[in-house]
Amino acid sequence: MYDGELQPLLESLSRRHLIPGSQLAVHRDGITRAVEFGVQLADGPPMSRAARVPVGSVSKTFTAALAMILVSDGDLDLDEPLAEYVPAAASLSDRLTARHLLSHTGGLPSDSDEVTASTLSKHVAECLRRADPLHEPGDGFSYSNIGYSAAGHLIEVVTGMSWWEAMSSVLLRPLGVAAHFVVAPDGPQDIVPGHAVNPERHRVVPVHQSLTLVDAPAGAIAASAIDLVRLGRMLSGDGPCLVGDAELREMRMPADGAEPFGMADAWGLGVALFEGGWFGHDGTGDGTSCHLRVHPENGTVVALTTNGSTGFAMWRELARELGVGDYDALSELGERATAPLPDCLGRFYNGDTEYSVQPGESAPLRLVVDGEPFAELTLYDGLLFRMRDVDTGDDTQTGRFLRGSPDRGIGWLQVGGRLARRAA
């Protein structure tokens, strides 16, 4: 697909999903083609090729790439106990390592409701001391922003620089990417605003970014689609030699214990893995949705940035059109729905977040998160379920219940890649 085909495709999908502005970059056969659509803000400047969009959790891939540069240089050991670098980790398992942080297999909760620290080091120390692990390191997968804050602080310890300084000088500048951050110690930077999109009411409203400084390693990068392609090319071995070949291969190998049900087919170090040899990451900021896919065998890299909250639905259509690897959660459900078991009901916790499974209204079960109705659940064989969002009606997301062993009761709930452990 060439420039003349990419532009109308991007425009039609953006209009269909009420996206104010978007960027699409495709690197194939040694050539990068980029197109843009729309505006950065209503009555504002057009969405230019150089505009930087908050890429949300795609920032984790940048943080992982930075860590792997340090591994390649011999400054960081992926399998050394984290407590050797970060003393606060000593309160957790001595098995916890940087490898677990980068692959979400450390058993750490996703987020902290109470952020009182103003620095990354203090925040990480507080989170690690307060953490109630979901499982032993390496024994499961639970998507964790806290884990990536810890990885960011680990980078600070090893380099002697702040995460922002290390990201700018060690990774972004050699990639040819100008550093732009959603939050930074010296104040906000010039980035594209996000928009909350309500398709039913045809409403598009600008929103502010709410990310805090201590969450920066998990979500603070702002980048263009071309910037994401530069990162993707480096990770495929087609770009500046910042990470050694062995470490690049290690990043895209399935991590032991990583079963990211509902998110991807497998998980490596900082990247999700998809069928057909693709890897990458998806990310949502406040009112933005951005996506990166890389196929190292044929050298293809695809990146999409959008400044609308419906960008994820748009990405799914775009991925199908371009033949890009993506995760089809519904394909794992099978065809037969089943009646829920009594021990599906109850309260499950991921850190400070409470997931309550209750009898449903329009479906057998209802999921309530922190006291707010979240989704209606229909159970399938294997304790898998399909979710219908109570606000939007979207029914493309899935989750599952997990037993500690075949002969034991349900001990965990997994939604959006996050584990929640049943209350004692």
Describe the structure.
This protein is of the alpha+beta class and 424 residues long. The chain has ten helices and 19 strands. The strands form four sheets. An eight-stranded antiparallel barrel has the order 12-13-14-15-16-17-18-19. A hairpin with a 7-residue loop joins β16 and β17.
Order of helices and strands: HEEEHHHHHEEHEHHEEEEEHEEEEEEEE
- DSSP, total strands: 19
**What is the average per-residue confidence, as pLDDT, rounded to a whole number?**
94
Please summarize the sheet with the most strands: 8 strands, antiparallel, barrel
Radius of gyration over all CA atoms, rounded: 21 Å
Helix content: 25-40%
Q: Strand order within the widest sheet?
A: 12-13-14-15-16-17-18-19
Given as residue ranges, the uncertain stretches (5+ residues, pLDDT < 50) are none
Number of helices: 10
- Shape, per Cα inertia axes: globular
Find the structural class using helix and strand composition: alpha+beta
Measured by DSSP, the beta-strand proportion falls in 25-35%
Cα end-to-end separation: 54 Å
